[in-house]
Specification:
This protein has 2 domains: 3-221 and 397-414, Glycogen Phosphorylase B (Rossmann fold), CATH 3.40.50; 232-395, Rossmann fold (3-Layer(aba) Sandwich), CATH 3.40.50.2000. Helices cover 43% and strands 13% of the residues. It has helices at residues 20-29, 43-48, 76-92, 94-111, 124-133, 155-175, 232-235, 256-267, 284-293, 306-309, 322-330, 344-353, 362-366, 369-379, 381-396, 399-414; strands spanning 3-7, 33-38, 53-55, 116-119, 136-140, 195-198, 216-218, 243-247, 272-276, 299-301, 313-318, 334-337, 357-359. Helix 8 (256-267) packs parallel to helix 9.
């Protein structure tokens, strides 16, 4: 039986990626020795999913990030540079990454090193520690892609590319490593020579096919069948009433105007809004203002159980988190994606490219295009047909069960 570490940043969203945590559960059910490794905030969530958990003090992930400055008071070019640098610091702050590497090496000294590490796509400390421990590293949730052409990069990207290369080299020098788990060209990223698993299809990456590396395998996924009963608030809604789910995930939930605009847009086409605002604190007066702005009948929640709610939804309006996007796809639900940061813009573009919904910017939302987009999607039966077909294609690839097979094959090949 294989001894596998699953290593993630200390955010629950980083256990998803479309099937990361489920893959660990499949392998454990087959008798393999699985250990989930992260910082303390994930301990209870991982235990609730039936997986052994090992806490380390540092994973190398910068969270929460330092407070954002007022970008309106900064020259535009400087503001763009600051946004890119803050994103880079999240996964490649040298001192934090070094502490994460040391924590993983210390853990291996205490409990023995694994046969392989299956990691969060942006966890630099795990990539370095895997090389130091001489164990196979596998990336879950992100494709392996060829280096970007520096000539097509923006100046700010070129500047930060040089910065990130220098950071990685200093970390490699510190630990006596070659950096075998990082790409070498412009815009360096974590690259496993063995295996990258995505929980989507090859079609999902159709506009990036020329950059896809051979170690990328697509396993798709399917909707979960809930094991618990639906919540009372959901069963109390008449079965014939179509719903729309509106969420910004767990991080960007402070955009209260988005919730009210989206709820109004879906109500105009006869959908009942289910608005999940997350658990971040909201001032009582702001929450009261939000309630006043919502259409009658709206269900305002901190969290919604996707696998109960989405089968009743005609539309989902969200931020483009990979896990959220994946859930909408496997349930065959039309989407409007309004990205707020980072890779969400990529997911939004892919949703539009696959003709599963719309990609709207924050500016589009402020111009009232949520209402126009909602009306257009609900009138386009062919979009729903695309969503249904894409969900079927996803399910046919095998999902986490297939991912588990690929991981075991990679471990055997590297042994």
């Amino acid at each position: 039986m294989a001894n596998l570490w699953f290593v993630s940043a200390p955010l629950y969203s980083h256990t998803d990626w479309g099937g990361f945590l489920k893959t660990a559960q499949v392998l454990q059910s087959q008798g393999h020795n699985i250990t989930w490794i992260s910082e303390a905030p994930l301990a209870n969530a991982i235990a609730a999913n039936g997986l052994p958990f090992q806490e380390i003090k540092h994973t190398g992930w910068l969270w929460p990030p330092p407070p954002a400055p007022d970008l309106s008071q900064i020259p535009p070019q400087e503001a763009v540079m600051l946004r890119y640098r803050r994103a880079l610091d999240t996964w490649l702050s040298e001192d934090l990454v070094a502490k994460g590497v040391e924590a993983l090496i210390d853990l291996a000294d205490r409990i023995g090193k694994p046969d392989a590490m299956v990691i969060d796509p942006f966890l630099s400390a795990a990539a370095l520690a895997a090389e130091k421990l001489n164990v196979t590293m596998i990336v879950a949730g992100w494709p392996a892609q060829a280096n970007l052409d520096e000539n097509v990069m923006f100046p700010v990207q070129r500047d930060l590319s040089s910065d990130s290369q220098q950071r990685i080299q200093r970390l490699c020098d510190r630990f006596g490593l070659e950096g075998v788990n990082f790409s070498k060209g412009a815009a360096p990223s974590i690259i496993s020579p063995a295996l990258h698993i995505t929980y989507f299809t090859q079609q999902w990456y159709m506009n990036e096919a020329s950059n896809m590396l051979f170690q990328t395998k697509h396993v798709g996924g399917s909707a979960n069948l809930p094991e618990d009963p639906p919540p009372d608030w959901l069963t109390n809604i008449p079965a014939e009433q179509p719903l729309a789910l509106i969420t910004l995930g767990t991080i960007f939930s402070g955009d209260l105007g988005f919730f009210s605009w989206a709820a109004q847009a879906v109500a105009r086409v006869g959908l009942l809004p289910i608005v999940a605002i997350g658990w971040n604190p909201i001032a009582p007066e702001d929450k009261a203002q939000l309630k006043r702005a919502l259409p009658g009948g709206t269900r305002l929640l901190n969290w919604a159980p996707f696998d109960h709610v989405l089968p009743r939804c005609e539309l989902m309006i969200h931020h483009g988190g990979m896990g959220t996007t994946h859930r909408a796809i496997v349930h065959g639900v039309r989407q409007i994606v309004v990205p707020h940061a980072a890779d969400q813009r990529i997911q939004a573009r892919r949703v539009a490219d696959a003709k599963l919904g719309l990609n709207l910017s924050a500016h589009d939302v402020r111009q009232g295009m949520l209402s126009e987009g909602t009306k257009a999607l609900m009138e386009a039966d062919w979009v729903q047909e695309n969503c249904t077909r894409f969900a079927q294609q996803m399910a046919a690839l095998g999902g986490p069960a297939r991912a588990a097979e690929l991981i075991l094959q990679a471990v055997q090949l590297e042994a």
